[in-house]
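quick one before i forget lol
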Amino acid sequence: MKQKLTKLEKYWVLYDVGNSAFTLLVSTIIPIYFKNMAQNMGVSASDSTAYLSYAISISTIIVAILGPILGAVADNKNHKKPLFTFFMMIGVLGCAALSIPKTWLMFLIIFVIAKVGFSGSLIFYDSMMVDVTTDERMDEVSSHGYAWGYIGSCIPFGVCLVLVLAYESIGISMEAAMVIAFFIIALWWLLGAVPLLRSYRQIHYVEAQHEPVRDSFRRLGRVFSELGRRPDILFFLLAFFFYIDGVYTVIDMATAYGTALGLDTAGLLLALLVTQVVAFPCSIFFGRLSRKLDAKVILSVCIAAYFGIAVFAFWLNSLRDFWILAVCVGMFQGTIQAISRSYYTKIIPAERAGEFFGIYDICGKGAAFTGTLLVSAISQLTGSTNAGVGSLSVMFLLGFVLFRVAASKRESM
């Protein structure tokens, strides 16, 4: 039976709308802006792509290290919201501060800080789902988050796109256009977080001890030991590590990839905007389909589709091919992330969601680190950007096999 989102579910979804604007900025305008800045300072195109990859990798390593510890601390009573707020504000302020640097190195340092704030906030945001909705609605609510995030982020992005592409017609400089764009995204992100901050209450938690940090480390140690007794969770995390690799790498490096192939900037940005638009109905469709179809079937289809996308990247050499790639990515990008999040939420203890999402974040951010390094290394070794992106197909294949093992372990319990 069709059921509307509750007010709290809507507020939770709204944060996805807010932060997704930053994700879109990172995958589109920032690489172009950074590459132009670096080129003006004498950095080659290949080196600027590598430097951006390394910056993304550094931010993911930081969050992967801090994630499990912060997640365990967040499970203590009344700790989740303050930690979420802290990292969200680091991201928002970092995004606005991207307008300050005049050198490529300082820009990357602030970019890493903003990315850490963004990724850190998602640890707590994802684990809030156990307090926001029920097990039966998690697949659909999670899908709504990504779906509305993709379509909602198009609003500020569209404004920024006009500024960046038509700054001369407007009568401002490129630098002024970027300053305005960074502030628009930061404000949009902050406004998307306010309703959730006002309404969220932590329902599932563990009672804080006299030494909450030390106790959190003890509980975190127990989580790792517990994974040996929960093969369904362990194999899912291993699968997630591999298949989400390509997803995050494609998101973070799509524009840099197209630019390295010499594709038209305006065409690239419009193609990636189409990805957001396509992702909206597809995420909603798969979310509703989860009422009738098991999540493991939907995830298997998405992983297999991404394998095909990575293989297609071997032969991509025109703007038309990039548009095809963008549409295909849009069809499955939101769903694979949304159903992964909800599937995992349903198989972990609700009162320890922070601890387990800290581990989840290691796998997700570790995969992004591996993926960007893999693409960079293969691209430089072979001299082919296509080969670098195409090599991600191996990661999707491993992810598919491991996920099927995880699903079988779940069924046998």
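fyi The longest helix spans residues 45-74.
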